[in-house]
Structure formats: C-alpha cells, structure tokens
C-alpha cells in the first residue's frame, strides 16, 4: 500500500498519529511528517483508522 497526504488540506491535529504513530507524526514544528509512505501490510487496519479519523480527508491510500 502507498500512503499519500494532501498537505494543503492537513491541519496538523494529529488524529492520524493517534491511530497509527508508526506512519504519521506531527512534530514540534506543527507539521505532519509521513514516517513511512509504504507501510507493511500488518499496519493496514490502523492506517485505515487514520483515514477515517482525519476530518479533512487529507489521507489517501493506494493499493
Ligand atoms: S488527521 Fe488529517 S488533518 Fe489531522 S494531522 Fe492527520 S492528515 Fe492532518
């Protein structure tokens, strides 16, 4: 799977990081950093939780 973030939509509220901190990290600079754009399959459920949690529809998963 491939994770794509639309940073123009993202408001850095870290809800995705709560769901899957292995992939999403909001840092002290108040910006979202994608730690792994091709996460392993065992993380799929939590990446999908992050997609559902995002109020800005800023996360897309391909594959
Ligand atoms: S949940 Fe959405 S808006 Fe919030 S930090 Fe993650 S991608 Fe950005």
Distance between the termini: 5 Å
Rg calculated over all Cα atoms: 10 Å
Shape descriptor reads globular
Largest sheet: 2 strands, antiparallel
Look at the helices and sheets and give the structural class.
Answer: alpha+beta
How much of the residues is beta strand, in percent? 15-25%
Order of secondary-structure elements: EHEEHE
Taking all residues together, what is the mean pLDDT? Answer: 98
Count of discrete alpha- or pi-helical segments spanning 4 or more residues:
2
**What helical percentage do the residues reach?**
10-25%
How many β-strand runs? 4
A few lines on this structure:
The chain has helices at 15-19, 44-53; strands at 2-5, 24-26, 32-34, 59-62.
Written description of the protein model:
- The protein is an alpha+beta fold and 63 residues long.
- It is 24% helix and 22% strand.
- The protein has two helices and four strands; from the N terminus they run βαββαβ.
- The strands form two sheets. The chain has a two-stranded antiparallel sheet with strand order 1-4.
- The protein is globular and about 30 Å long.
- It starts with a strand and ends with a strand.
- Iron/sulfur cluster binds next to helix 1 and strand 2.
Write the layout of secondary structure elements.
Blueprint: E1 2-5, H1 15-19, E2 24-26, E3 32-34, H2 44-53, E4 59-62
Antiparallel strand pairs: 1-4, 2-3
The structure holds iron/sulfur cluster (SF4).
Residues 5, 10-16, 24, 26, 32, 53-54, 56, 58-59 line the site of iron/sulfur cluster.
């Amino acid at each position: 799977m491939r994770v794509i973030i639309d940073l123009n939509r993202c408001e850095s509220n870290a809800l995705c990081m709560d769901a899957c901190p292995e992939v999403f990290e909001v840092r002290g600079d108040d910006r979202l950093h994608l730690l792994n754009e091709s996460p392993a399959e065992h993380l799929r459920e939590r990446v999908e939780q992050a997609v559902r949690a995002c109020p800005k529809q800023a996360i897309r998963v391909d594959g």
